[in-house]
C-alpha cells in the first residue's frame, strides 16, 4: 500500500515480523519505518541494541539516548516507508493510556510519602 505521495505505508504487523530473528531488521521511530540491517555493524552503540528494538516502535528508546543530528540524518538512508496511520493511532493510544493512569498514582504516592515524613517527624 502506498500513501498519496508515493511513500510506502507499512502495517505494524509487518514490522513485527522483522524482529531479531528475521533476515531484515526493521524498527519504527516516530511513525517512520527503517531497515536497520545494513547498520548493525556500524552502530556506535553496537548492533545488539538495534536487535533489541527490532520489530517494534523504538521511538522512546531512540529519543532517550539523545542521538546527534548526524544520527537523525543517517535515518534518511535507512527509511523504507511510513507506518500505517491506523497503527500510529494504536501505538499512541497505548502509550497515552499507560502514562495517564500512572500520573495520578505517582502523585498520590509522592504526596503520601511527604505527609508520612511530616507526620512521623513531629514530636
Features:
123 residues, alpha+beta, 5 helices, 12% strand, elongated
What does it look like?
It contains five helices and four strands, in the order βαββαααβα. With 123 residues, it is α+β, with helices and mostly antiparallel strands. Strands 1-4-3-2 form a four-stranded mixed β-sheet. It has helices at 12-17, 47-52, 59-65, 69-78, 85-121; strands at 9-10, 26-29, 32-35, 79-83. The protein is elongated.
Could you give a short description of this structure?
This protein has 123 residues and is of the alpha+beta class.
Q: Any chance you could write out the topology, listing elements then pairs?
A:
Elements: E1 9-10, H1 12-17, E2 26-29, E3 32-35, H2 47-52, H3 59-65, H4 69-78, E4 79-83, H5 85-121
Parallel strand pairs: 1-4
Antiparallel strand pairs: 2-3, 3-4
- Helix count? 5
- Taking pLDDT < 50 over at least 5 consecutive residues as the criterion, the unreliable ranges are none
User: How much is the radius of gyration in Å?
Assistant: 20 Å
- Order of the strands making up the biggest sheet: 1-4-3-2
Mean pLDDT: 83
- The span between the termini is 70 Å
Number of E-state strands: 4
| Main β sheet profile | 4 strands, mixed
Q: Tell me, what's the shape?
A: elongated
Helical coverage, percent range: 40-55%
- Return the structural class: alpha+beta
Measured by DSSP, the beta-strand proportion falls in: 5-15%
Order of helices and strands: EHEEHHHEH
Amino acid at each position: 500500500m502506498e500513501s498519496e505521495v508515493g511513500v510506502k505505508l507499512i502495517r505494524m504487523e509487518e514490522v513485527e515480523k522483522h524482529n531479531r530473528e528475521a533476515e531484515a531488521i526493521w524498527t519504527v521511530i516516530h511513525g517512520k519505518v527503517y531497515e536497520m540491517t545494513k547498520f548493525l555493524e556500524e552502530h556506535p552503540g553496537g548492533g545488539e541494541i538495534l536487535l533489541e528494538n527490532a520489530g517494534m516502535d523504538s521511538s522512546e528508546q531512540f529519543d532517550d539516548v539523545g542521538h546527534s543530528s548526524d544520527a537523525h540524518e543517517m535515518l534518511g538512508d535507512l527509511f523504507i516507508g511510513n507506518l500505517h496511520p491506523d497503527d500510529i493511532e494504536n501505538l499512541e493510544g497505548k502509550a497515552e493510556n499507560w502514562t495517564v493512569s500512572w500520573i495520578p498514582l505517582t502523585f498520590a504516592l509522592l504526596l503520601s510519602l511527604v505527609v508520612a515524613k511530616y507526620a512521623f517527624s513531629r514530636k
